[in-house]
Write a structure and sequence with these properties.
The protein has 557 residues and is of the alpha+beta class. It has 14 helices and 24 strands. α1 runs parallel beside α7, α7 packs antiparallel against α8 and α8 packs antiparallel against α9. The longest helix has 25 residues. It binds flavin-adenine dinucleotide.
Length: 557
């Protein structure tokens, strides 16, 4: 059997596996990605690339590619809730088209609309741009074995049936919800295995906007006498739409005729359209008990499954791989300590538990009309009294739904509390906010953004190695840190910043930022024991041994 060798073998070429391949390649690490499909996306799932994910795209130099990937950037992004498109509108949250939206003050980027059929090719191009990355499509993982010193995998060409072995220092399963890698490791998932049985139908219709009297929108939510029953999403801002029949915890198989009838009900009159694909799927709230074992890790949907309400799924997966990638690079390049990779689970698992929990709460709010039903007359009466009942109901719903539309705190405010590779500074952990993000350089947090020159953000300083920021006119001497880092092989750059705004945000004269852009340590002077600081942040000191408890994180959240 033909065999080959790589440093990291990635299983799965969805957005998470591709982002890992791209980030590893960007760091100069050799990796091979295998994907059993041909790389095309039959039905896009994700469509929102969150603000933190866009910050990663900025780091990788691919923001232009995302912006020009194919979504109509002049298409309004309003979300509206209606009886049907020719019926009554309960309310609406207006959002500008992507071309007009501005980044918030906390970031040099903004979230982008880039559905998976556009985003996956962008990530493929990014991964292919590094000579150390090899992408192999139509290649399936059959089995693997962790041999202690390396991992041995057997893969198969799905067209010819030819098998080959690939040996790798590490294997990462980015192989989706049904992850063979996770199952082979015997890792269970905790949470709720069925929230709803939903069916997505992608259809094509030219000029859908002309068939109704509502203002255009990216997302419509349909509320009928039975409560919230369907959603409609503009997946290219032109002629393609994704209709989701939300369903409930009872499994049903939808025929094409039933799907057509549901779409006509949502639009409110018969019209011509072409069904491109139908995809039944199960909405879940699950997180793996562990993020790996030995030399094998899992990331993305392989590690956590969430309701799409909030758009956290892939975005959490991108956090996973950006966290894991620099640690793999560190260990492979020799400066990462023997405990560095253990910190991946300790840091990312609680983030997933919080995010999937928040997504389920978003779902609960979206479906609330199933329980808090409006006056039945609101569906078909023009009576002024009914009009005001409809408005009141709509305003309450609009207010409640805001938490889903404005979730910057989830995207930027995650924190690696209790991480063994972060040195706490004694300040208390602020509560996790959802609709608000308060920038902080407290260790474990995302190092905050400040403009430090024309078009240059503090975030542009971070990425490849560790960065020690020094603030103020007479910065403290950091020679001891430079020397100790050099002795350990830790890549470290010292950057002096005179910017007052940045100094205010970062609060200390010295702030150490790690390669993923999170703060590992801060202080006004170096600690006496610089060796322990360096050994802690590079994972050379044994950290917390006990596993992360799902229930404890849920309770805390
Ligand atoms: C309707 C809907 C809307 C969503 N919207 C958003 C959104 O706006 N934003 C967001 O962040 N998330 C969203 N999500 C979630 C998001 O789509 C997923 O979290 C994301 O696709 C997960 O990416 P992944 O790469 O981990 O897994 P997947 O996309 O499932 O990719 C896994 C890949 O692994 C391959 N594979 C599996 N087994 C093997 C094997 N043995 N050998 C080789 N290859 C294998 C599969 O073929 C597949 O290509 C949405 C989900 C849905 C259902």
């Amino acid at each position: 059997m033909h065999s080959s060798r790589t440093s990291v073998l990635i299983i799965g070429g969805g957005p998470v596996g591709l982002a890992l391949a791209g980030d590893l390649g960007w760091r100069g690490v050799a990796c091979t990605l295998i994907e059993k499909g041909d790389g095309s996306v039959a039905q896009p799932k994700m469509d929102m690339v969150g603000i933190r994910a866009m910050e990663f795209c900025r780091r990788w130099g691919i923001v232009d590619w995302v912006e020009s990937a194919g979504y109509n950037r002049d298409y309004p992004q309003d979300c509206a809730w209606v009886t049907h498109l020719n019926g009554y509108e309960f309310g609406r949250e207006p959002f500008p088209p992507p071309s007009q939206e501005k980044p918030p003050p906390h970031s040099p980027q903004k979230r982008e609309r880039c559905p998976q059929n556009f985003f996956d090719p962008v990530l493929q191009r990014f991964a292919k741009s590094s000579p150390s990355v090899s992408l192999r499509f139509e290649t399936e993982l059959l089995e693997f074995e962790d041999r202690g010193t390396h991992v041995e995998a057997i893969v198969q060409d799905v067209r010819t049936g030819e098998q080959r072995t690939i040996s790798a220092d590490y294997l990462v399963g980015c192989d989706g919800g049904a992850s063979k890698v996770r199952q082979s490791l015997g890792i269970e998932m905790e949470g709720d295995a069925v929230l709803t049985y939903t069916t997505n139908i992608v259809f094509r219709c030219d000029g859908l906007e002309q068939l109704h009297d509502k203002k255009p929108g990216y997302r419509f939510i349909f509320i009928g006498p039975e409560g919230t029953w369907a959603t409609l999403v503009a997946i290219n801002g032109r002629d393609q739409w994704r209709f989701s029949l939300i369903g409930d915890s009872e499994k049903r198989t939808l025929t094409e005729d039933e799907a057509r009838a549901a779409i006509v009900r949502a639009v409110g009159k018969p019209f011509d359209f072409e069904i491109l694909s139908m995809l039944p799927w199960v909405r879940r709230q699950l997180v793996a008990r562990h993020y790996g074992k030995g030399r094998v890790f899992i990331a993305g949907d392989a590690a956590h499954l969430t309701s799409p309400t909030g758009g956290f799924g892939m975005n959490t997966g991108l956090l996973d791989v950006v966290n894991l990638s620099w640690k793999l690079a560190g260990v492979l390049q020799g400066w990462g300590g023997e405990h560095l990779l253990e910190s991946y689970e300790v840091e990312q698992l609680p983030v997933a538990v919080r995010n999937v929990g928040e997504a389920t709460e978003n779902l609960r709010r979206m479906l609330s009309p199933r329980i808090l039903q409006p006056d039945p007359r609101v569906f078909d009466s023009n009576d002024p009294e009914v009009e005001s009942a409809r408005r009141e109901y709509g305003e309450r719903y609009t207010e409640m739904m805001r938490r889903e539309w404005f979730s910057i705190g989830v995207h930027l405010g995650y924190v690696y509390e209790g991480s063994p590779v972060v040195v706490p500074d004694g300040t208390p952990c602020p509560p996790l906010e959802v609709s608000k993000y308060t920038p902080t350089a407290r260790p474990g947090s995302r190092a905050p953004h400040a403009w430090i020159g024309e078009g240059k953000s503090t975030l542009d300083l971070f990425g490849k190695g560790f960065v020690l920021l020094r603030f103020g006119a007479n910065p403290p001497d950091v020679q001891a840190l430079r020397k100790t880092a050099a002795a350990a092989g830790l890549p470290l750059e010292v950057v002096d910043l005179q910017d007052e705004n940045a100094a205010r945000l970062y609060e200390r004269r010295l702030v150490l930022v790690r390669p993923d852009g999170q703060v590992s340590w801060r202080g006004d002077a170096l600690p006496e024991d610089v060796a322990t600081l360096v050994d802690t942040v590079r994972g050379a000191i044994a950290g917390r041994a006990e596993p992360v408890s799902f229930k404890a994180v849920i309770a805390e959240a």
